[in-house]
Every structure is written in C-alpha cells, then in structure tokens.
Specification:
The complex is a heterodimer of chains A (554) and B (438). Chain A has 554 residues and is mostly helical. Helices cover 61% and strands 0% of the residues of chain A. In chain A, helix 9 runs antiparallel to helix 16. Chain B has one domain. Chain B has 18 helices and two strands. Chain B has a two-stranded antiparallel sheet. In chain B, strand 1 and strand 2 form a beta hairpin. The radius of gyration of chain B is 23 Å and the shape is globular. The chains are: A mainly alpha (554), B mainly alpha (438). Chains A and B meet through helix 8, helix 9 and helix 11 of A and helix 1, helix 8, helix 10, helix 11 and helix 12 of B.
Chain lengths: 554, 438
Amino acid sequence: MSVLRPDESAARELAGLQQPLASAVPWDPATGDGTLVNDPAQRAPLVLGNRDFHSITETVCGYVEKGPGRWWNPAFLIAAHVAGLMPLMIIYLIITGVGVWGLNNQVDWAWDITNFVFWIGIGHAGTLISAILCLLKQKWRTSINRAAEAMTIFAVICAGTFPGIHIGRVWMAWMLAPVPNSNAIWSNFSSPLLWDVFAVSTYATVSLLFWYMGMIPDFATLRDRAALRLGLNPAGGQRLPIINVSVDMIRARVYGFLSMGWRFSTRHWINYEKAYLMLAGISTPLVLSVHSIVSFDFATSVIPGWHTTIFPPYFVAGAIFGGFAMVLLLIIPSRELCPGMKDIVTRRHLENMAKIILLTGMMVGFAYAMEFFIAAYSGNKFETDVFVYNRLMPPFLADTLGGGRYAPYWWAYWAMIFCNVVTPQVFWFKRGRQSIPVIFAVAFFVTIGMWFERFVIIVTSLHRAFLPGEWHMFFPTLVDILTFVGSIGTFLTLYLLFMRFLPQFAMSEIKAVMPQANPHAHGHDHHTHDDHHAGGTHAATKHSPNTPTTGGEA
Amino acid sequence: MTALPADTIHDHSASNLGRTFASHTGPIDLSPANTTVPKSWANGPMLLLLALGLLCLGATAYAGWSAEDAKGLKHAVLSYHVGVMAVTTMMLGSLVLVMISRAVQAGWSTTFRRQSENVAALMPLLALFLLPYLFFAPKVWKWMLPESKGDFLLLAKSWYLNEPFLAGRIIFYVLVFCFFAYKQFTLSRQQDITGDKALTNKAQFWAMPGLLFFALSAAFFSFDLIMSMDFHWFSTMFGVYFFAGSILSGVALVILITAILRASGRLKGLITREHYHDLGKLLIGFTIFWAYIAFSQYFLIWYANIPEETAWMLVRTNNGWQNVGLVIILGHFVLPFLILLFRSVKTKMRILVLLACWQLLMHVVDLFWQIRPITFMTYDSGNPVSAGKVGLAWVDFTGIIGPVAIFAAGIIFMVRRSPLIPIKDPRLSEALNHKNYV
C-alpha cells in the first residue's frame, strides 16, 4: 500500500518532520485523553494519537472510501424509512386538507411552526461554529465545523418544508415569493413572514456556499486518491454490481466535477482563504438576522406573550443553544462509531461545547426571567395572565396559589424549564461537563426543551385570546406527530448520507492546528516568556495558513 | 489564463509580511522601564482632572442649589445622573471584559487585561457617586413623589418600586460589582508577586459566577437606575441594551488607556498592532451588537405601536430630541461601522484611538438621550407627553464632566499602582506572540 502514499515524505519534509516524533500523549485518568488539562500555561492538543498529516487524510477519506463502519447500513435503512413518513404525511395533508392537523380557529399555528422554528434554530450552530468561531480564531472549531455546517443545511431543509405546507392551499406557496401577478397583487412587504422567506433563503444560500466551498479542497483530495488508485491498478478495485463500473472511476469523475478544478496551488489557497474569511464575515450577521426575523414573526404581533422586546437576542441565544445540543447528539455517537474519530474530536471539544450549552442555556434562562419580571412589573394584566395562567401554574397549586385557576399547558412550560434551565446546570461541575454520557443526556434534554420552548411560545399565547369565547385547546393529531417524526428521519438520513459520501472533516484546517504543523513545538508545551520569543519570525511558520503542507496531499 | 508576472505575486506577499511582522522585530522588553510607570507619573494631569471634576461637581451642585424652580434642580441632578451612569457603564464594561477573557481562558488579552482590571477596581467610586442620591432621589425617580403615589400603575408596581427595596437592591448591586471586581483585581495582582499558575484558574473560577451575577445585577441596575425613572414604561430588552453600551465603552476605554501608555513610552512590543487589530474587531463587533439591540428594541416598539410602550420613544423623538437620536444612529453606529470595516483603520492606532474616544462620547450621548429628556418632561395622568426642548445648558456639561473627570483621575491613580501588564501570567507568552496571520 505504500505506493499509494507518494505524498507522505513530501508532507513530512515540508513540515520539518523528518525526526521521529515524541511519544503520543498518554492516557491519564486525571486529564482523560490528555486534552482536559487544567494548566493555564498549556493549551490542550487539538488532534491526538501522534498522527502525521497523512494519517489524517487516511482517516477522513477512509470514512468515504471504506465507509464509516458496518453500523451505517442498518442505521441508514431505519432513518430512511422514518424519513419516508414525511412525504407520506405531506401528501396526505395536501390531498385531504389542513383538517388532518390539530389546528382550530384559535390555534392556527401549532406543530408546523413549532417544528419550523425548532429546525431553523438547530441550523444556527453550524454557522456559529463555522463563521463566528472562525472570526474569533477558536481553533477547536476545525474538528466540528464541517459536521455542523452539514447539519445546518439539513436542518434548514427540514425547516423550510413546514411554512410551505402549513399555508393551507399548498399550490399557493409561490405567493411567499415577491412575484407580481396579473392582478397586481404584491406580497405584503411589511409582514415579517415575508422577511422570513428572504432571511431563511439567504441563510440557506450562504450556508450552502460556505459548506460547499470549504469542501472543495477535500473533494480534490478524494478525486486525486481515486485517480491515483485507478492509475496504479486500472482493472482492480471495487466495482459496482450490475453495471460493472469501477467505483473509483465514479469517484474520480464525481469528486472531480465537484472540486471545480482545484489543483492545490498556492494561488488557489490564497483565494480560498480570502473567500472563506469573507463568507465568514457575511455569515456572522446572518446568524443574528435569521432568528431575529423569526422572532419578529411573533414579537411584532400585539399578543401577550409574543410582543416583548427581548425576543430577537433571546431567540438567537436559544437557536445556538439548541443547535449545539444537536451537534453533540450527532458528534458523540459518530465519535464512538467511526474509527479514529476520537483523535480528531477530543474530550476537550466536547467539554467546550458543554460550556457553550451552559452559557447559552443561561442566556435563555435570563430571557425567561426578564419576560416574567417585566410581565409582572408592567402591571399589564393580560401579560401576567399569559405567563401565570397559560404557562406557569400547575393544577396541584391551583387552589393554594392560583385562586382555583391553572395553566392548561403547565406541563409543556415546566418541561421547557426543566430541560433548558435545570439540566444544563450540571455543566457547572467539571465532573458533569467532562462525562460523555452526561453531556449526551443533557444535549438530549436540551433538544426536547427547545422544541417545547417554541411550542410554549406559540400555542400557549394563541390558545386563549382576549375573550373567553375564543379559548380553545390544541392537541396534535397523529398526522402532526408523524410529520415531525418524519422530519427527524429526513434530517438523520441526510446526515448519514453526508457521513458516507462527503468528507466529514476539513482536512486542511485540522492539519493546520495539529502540533505537527508547528515545527518549533516541543510536545505541546508553551514555554514561559523567558525562554520563548527571542524573535517573532518563527511564528510565521508556527501557524502558517494550511497552504503548502497540505497542498501536496492526495 | 495568463500567468501573472512573478514579481507581482512576490510584492503582494511581501507587503502582507511587512504589515504583519513589523511590530515584532525587536526582542520583548519586560523590564520595569517598559512595564511600569513611576509612582509620580502623570501627577499633574491627575490633579488637574481631580480639580476639574470637583470644580464641575461643585458648579453642578451650586446650579442645583441656587435653582429658582424645581426644574432647575432636576436639570442639575439628571446631568449628574448621566455622568454617573457613563462612569458606571465604563466600569461595568471593563469588569465584564475581564471576566469574559478569564472565563474563556483568553491568551491574547493578557497584556491589556490589567488596564481593564484597574478600571473595574475603581468600582467603589460607584458607591461614592450614588451617596448624594440620598438627598435628591425623588428628582431622579418620579415615583417617589407624593403626587405619584395614587397612580394606578404605581400601585400595581409598588411591590417592586418602593424606597426600602430600591435601597436594598442598589446596595446589593454595588456589593456584587465591587466584590467581583475586587476578586479579579486581587487575584491578578497576587500573581504579579507569586507567579502562581493556580491563580489563573482561580480567577477563571470566580469569573463564572461573576458573569452570572453580573448579568442579573446589571440588568436590574439598568431597570432601577434608568428605566424606572419613567415608571410607566418597560422593555424586556433594556438590560441587554445597557449591557451592550457598557461592553462597547469597556473596549473603547481599554484602547484609549493603553494608547496613552504607549504614547508615554511604555508597553513597547507588549501591546502591538496585532492587539489593536483585534481590539478594533471587538470595537466594531460590539458597535454592531449595540446597534442590533438598539434597533430591535426600537423596531418592535414602533411596529407593535402600543401607547404604553411608544410613549417613551415618542417624547424622545420630538422637540429636537430626534436630532439627538439621529446623532446617535449616525455617530454611534453608521459612521464608526463604516470606518472600522477597513483593516487599515483597525491597525492604525491613531484612527482607532480617535474612534474609541468617539464611541465613548457617543455612549454618553446615548445615555443623555435616555435620561435627560425627563428633566423638562410634562405628564398627563402619569404618561409622558412632551420632553420639551433639549435646552442644553452649561450644567449639562459640568454634571457629566464632574464624575467622568474624577473617574479619569482615578484611572491614573490605579495605573501607577501596579505593573502595566500581569508580568507573571502564564498566558503572557501567548499574548506577546499574538498574531492575526492575515
């Protein structure tokens, strides 16, 4: 197989790695895989296993070329079946009418819009990781950004479906776009619902570009590896059944098409880095704008519980909160199931994400508290009533505290509080945020909690208007539920396809943050200032952009 | 594709290199000559600022004392209130900057963190500045006046808006702010002496609850000290708005202080163009954040158009106050945003310092726009009807300059007392080696 590694020595030479490396980071019960160091003079390594650049290429391309593991086929089969529910339910909805949902005259936004906001929120973590953490120079993002960006695209796909199908007459969906028709009826430009269409489609476009552009060098690597194997052994290799075409031939053609003529030249890399920075700059306000506009859908309405000024940043924080939880839900099993991934996604990465969950969870908690406080402070009886008697008051306290009244959706409210505010508190403790099962469990709760948050906001405020004659409860039907389950299946199916056919990590970026990318580093120590910085020039090589070292890959 | 001449490419990369490494050519100088100022440094300016501050406060007090009517006294009081809030937000902004950089284990900020710590450690000044409020509290908080007591909305809010509870809350906020500022300052100073790495972890440990308490205290502080001045009005965003202004002024202030120290020949090679580039990014970042919050608050109130909310905005967008608002929109956001977009601006210290000063000034104008209209406000059954003309007078300047000048003198006093950077911080090497790489 060594003949398939023509690039290894070049990479070693470029990186100054001719000398054998120091031993790998040993497993230490106190610091886990070695990344949970608590020494302020030291930064945790971002890639473990004393790997060289080539082994990163082998691992990441291996997921595509050899598959992520035996588990993939059954997992895909199940997910695809669940995904099938979604078109099934949508077709049923269209041919029957919105009566198949649990909507009524009072609650005309319910599961559909809850699911929309839920999915669009999940999409935010990807852009946060790829754009904002990039601008903030958080190097640990390199291990998770690709997966998170992919997740963003898939979540936006799921999200985009719901507003399209909840309009009742699906064949009128084109009215969402500002297309003038012959009767000169234009879309309502002063409606946040229309801005939402623009915001989400802009977001989807930019995220897709960002994701795709980042993958171009990795596509080229996959292309070159396939072409190399074909050149070495034209007759051999895996072949597709029935049509008897070489798999590597398909890879070389398809990845070749997708890589848009990428040749790893320095000029390509310079343009790539500039474009990446610009897209990061463009995406950053998008992280804020999309969910702010989603929040406008509610907050511009004069409905108690909806109209409150903190909604935009509160929704953004909630979106990042839910998005990071979903990244964790995907990355933790991937890390266990895909060989070698634990070296790339370390315990430190998970701990960092747990901290972001705690931070954004506290922000969301802060917003809940502000809403409550201002509802009480405002002296507005309707506002207070929504919070206390539509959301908060459980039946068992109705007699003692509620004057005999209780909130019919109290269980949804308390599920939200428990999942979003209470469970992340375990991350205050090192043992909590460093334990993978605990992180997974909290991420699971947060995902549920963030769904409930949107349900609480939408349904509890709508189900009781100002007159008691306009009070109706909402209960989901089986179609409501199965459509949502189907969207989860769609999301997982797309993610599994991504794991199987697209590079799950940005190889060049990972290589740039490896200890081996710094020829002057001795182990992972950062020396104290006395013996360090005699001159600044060595920093030029220390963190040189990932260009030349990775350019020779494949 | 035609090949570019080789020298074109070469020139391009050369200019990049020159820009990035120009500041990192010499050896790092950690000698006391570069990292400390003498105990008597800037004595003249400090005493001058102190004198100016006291003079202005005296003049403001005199204006209030000798005022012919209640409006005159209120004018002096609210001008002073704007000044106190300006100082408070700068201190709070510095404190939160320190706590955030501790909480996220930032390395690059190590060399300028000390200056923010110094500013935050001035927090007891807040208690000092708030003491005179005991004498004129009803001028700040209309709900304390006897004629407000029967107000329907005040009755609904009296569980929160009552004198003993307010006093208790203010004492609590001041204690919280002082405690966490003191913790951060002393832990950092201790490390100057012992060099114990564990102190860094300890500072991080205290930054976490610090941020939690800070978020809640700062929000309620803004409700109590600014929002409840017009007790009919409410906005859930107000605490975030206050925070956005605070952290923006905290970043601007640290740019200004370190630039002055560099101009006096210190911090050479310790706070470099690379740091200013990133501080410039933070400045534009928080400028955008402030604008986002300010816009969201205004927009949602404008769109929903409920009288109980719009009243606050209406009186501030009439009778000339809309011009102040325009100055804030253009001056606090549009102009600095457009200028700071350019990398060449963020890496040129003079322009950056100019913009930092400008943003501090605009921050004061923002507070002025929030607080000062109440001076000449007329009410109809408790609802603000008109803020009257802006009516700028000399007391507006003395009231604001007074606390700010004393605060500035306090900064000089603090700067002299400790090394200009945390000299034994384990992350110092990271900050000294900080690069932007592009």
